[in-house]
Every structure is written in structure tokens, then in C-alpha cells.
Amino acid sequence: MLNFSVKKMDFLNPLSKVQTIVDKKSTMAIINNVLIYTNETYLFIEATDLEVSYRNKIPCSVTEQGAMTINARKLYEIVKEFPSEDINFKEEENSWLKIGSAKKAEYRIGGLPPDDFPKFREINSENFIKLKTSTIKEMIEKTLFSASFDNSKFSLASIYLEEEIKEEGTQIRMVSSDGHRLALMEKIISEKGLKIESSVIIPRKGAQEIKKLIEGYETLIFGIDDKFCFVICGDNYLVIRLIDGKFPDYHSIIPEEENRYFIFDRIEVFGALKRISIFSSDTTFRGVKINIEQNLMKIESLYKDIGEAMEIIDINYRGEPFNIAINGKYLMDALSVMESDKIKFIVNNTKSPCILKGENDVGFLGAIMPMNFVRQ
Question: What pLDDT, on a 0 to 100 scale, did the predictor assign at position 124?
């Protein structure tokens, strides 16, 4: 039966990582739990919601090998607040786990046998690449914000991933869209490609877990294996079930021409939008009307039921005056992930998507659909 001792901080780190993976709403009690088991020298930790699976191993002192599952949240809270650095875990009858440190503290918590815990998918590492974590982190950060929060729209609550072999290397591209906006980020890497047959779709939650997992590491292993993608950072393993669906044709959304555009200061416009949004009671829809004249941009609140606001900003524009209406929150979300001081905002007409680009945001493109009406 399971009996081992482990350092508190060694155990706490992987336990913290699984908290957002376990499915707390599931009627399957077993996947509310974390699986812990040992070999001669290591403690292994696994968690899954059947779509995203995680495994890690940490050094420990093993008295007796074994395996059991314990509620992930309760185990994390106990270890986090435990008064000693060294913690002993001993399995008792009927899948109870005694947690203690000499005579200072002792806890008992009920668990479940490991037999019904979903098996961790072993990884075929043939189709993989080694990347800088900064590359994947930037690509996810600059696309995840525009993925849909509606999980019933599987292909939109996701990040689309494709690759293209070029003379200078392999171009990897991530795209996301909730149907009202779009974000695209691409980079050229010198490493070999993933040999993706066409493309893959990574669910939003999986992308979030990748971003969290790679924090603090310089490199990662990233790969595709059948209908799964996997990430390895040190002793952390993450396996994500890919979405079986079709992503919209994003090429048809992005205008090929740049007939009309203006340049504005990112920080200045973001600040104005943030202040104007005070007059919006809807946190997801903050309509603004934008009037463009020669070298001037006037932003005003679209809905004026509880108040109104207007700000004028200097821009670089010498064309004919025009106006558009867009969701100010969408524009703020895009500006918040960009790094350029000056933003190029392309508005060919009032029906085509508004495009955002920046010199310091190489490979990034944001698109926002304008609203179909302007309310005075």
C-alpha cells in the first residue's frame, strides 16, 4: 500500500497546475481526483478532464509502492497549508490516506481506488519540434483572446494551427475567431516541421494550459500525435485532445488591399476606450462610434442611456472623412496584446473587417467586424 515522504514545495507545484484541469462539475467523481502513484524513487501525479491530461513526477522517499486517487482540490489545500516541509503519506484501509509529519500534524482523507482512473495517453514523439517557450507563449497570447467563450461552438472556442514549409524555414500559424473578430499570429522557425497533414484545432482550455505549463521554462517539446497534441517541459507532460471539426476559411475574411488606413498611438487610444467604457453596463459589448477626419480621431460612446463620453485624439490621416461603429472591447483586447507604439488601422469600407497591424508585432494581424448600424 502507498507509503512515501515528499518535500512540501516539490509536491505543491504540480498540484497547483492540475487545479484548472480537473473537471469539478463532472458527475464522474474519479476525474475530480488526482491520481498519485510511486515507483522506487519517484512520485507520479496525473489529472484529466478527458480532454486535457497532465502528468508529472517528483523525487520522493518511497517506503512502499502503491497508487490511489484523492480529491484534487482538498489535497492541494492540505499540502499548501501543511505546517512542515517534509510530509508523509500513508494509505490505510478502504482507500483512506493519512497525511502527517511526525507528531506535529495529522490528517485523514478518503480517496478512491485507481482502477477506474482514465489511462494516460502515452506519447509518440516522432512528430515533434523543440521550440523556445517565448515563441509559443507569444503566439497563444496574441490569438487566445479572440477565441469564442461559447464551448458549444467547438471550432470557434479554439485556436487553429497550421504550418507551411518555406525556403527560410517552417512557418507556423495560429488563428482564432469568435465570428465577430479574428486574430492571426505566425512565425518562421528554423526547426523541422510537425508534418501536420493539413491543420489541427486546439481547444481553448488546452491552449490555456499550455501557456500556464511553459511558464518559467526556456524550451519545450511540442508535437502532434494522431488526434492529440502534446507538450513536454522538464518533467511536465500535457496531452490535449484536438477538436474534430472544421475551422472557418479565415483567408476570405482578411482584405487583400489597404485602400484606406490611419495611424494612431496605441496607449492613447486604449486609455480613451477604457474611460469611455465606463458608460457601458455590458462588459462584453461596448459599442463606440469613431469619426475620422484629417489627422483627428473622435471616439464617443454609442449607447447613451446612462451617460455619454467623447475624446479626440491626434492621428496620422489625410483622406476623406468617414465614421464607423465597432465594439470598443474588441479593440481594447487586440491593443492589449500588441507591443507597437503606433498602430496601423485599416478601414477599406464600413462593411469589411477593420485590420490592426504594428511594426513591432511582426506576424500579427487583428481583425474586427464593424457594426451594421450607428446609433446616435
Answer: 75
Separation between Cα atoms, residue 73 and residue 31, nearest integer Å: 12
Q: Which CATH code is given to the segment(s) 128-250?
A: 3.10.150.10
CATH of domain 255-368: 3.10.150.10
CATH code of domain 3-116:
3.10.150.10
Q: Global pTM? A: 0.91
The domain segmentation of the chain, as residue ranges, is 3-116, 128-250, 255-368
Low-confidence ranges of the chain (pLDDT < 70): 102, 125, 193-198, 281-284, 373-376
C-alpha–C-alpha distance, residues 148 and 181, integer Å: 10
Cα 273 to Cα 163, 266, 333, 349: the distances in Å are 35, 11, 11, 22
Cell 504594428 belongs to 358
Q: How far apart are CA 61 and CA 42, in angstroms?
A: 8
| Sign of the alpha-carbon dihedral angle for 69, 72, 74, 78 | positive
DSSP string, 279-300: G-S-SS--EEEEEEETTEEEEE
**Rounded CA gap, 31 and 70, in Å?**
10
Give the model's pLDDT for residue 195: 66
279 to each of 162, 197, 302, 370, how far by Cα in Å?
A: 40, 48, 9, 20
Q: Is 374 helix (H, G, I), strand (E, B) or coil?
A: coil
Check if the beta carbon of residue 353 is closer than 8 Å to that of residue 362: no
| Of the candidates 285, 139, 305, 300, the residue with the CA atom closest to the CA atom of residue 210 | 139
The amino acid sitting at 40 is E
What is the predicted pLDDT for the residue at 55? 97
- Alpha carbon separation from 36 to 58, 234, 239 (Å, rounded): 11, 19, 18
pLDDT at res. 297? 97
Report pLDDT for 283: 66
Sign of the Cα torsion 320, 325, 329, 330 reads negative
Question: Which DSSP category does 206 fall into?
Answer: H
Separation between Cα atoms, residue 151 and residue 17, nearest integer Å: 22
| Grid cell in block for residue 299 | 471616439
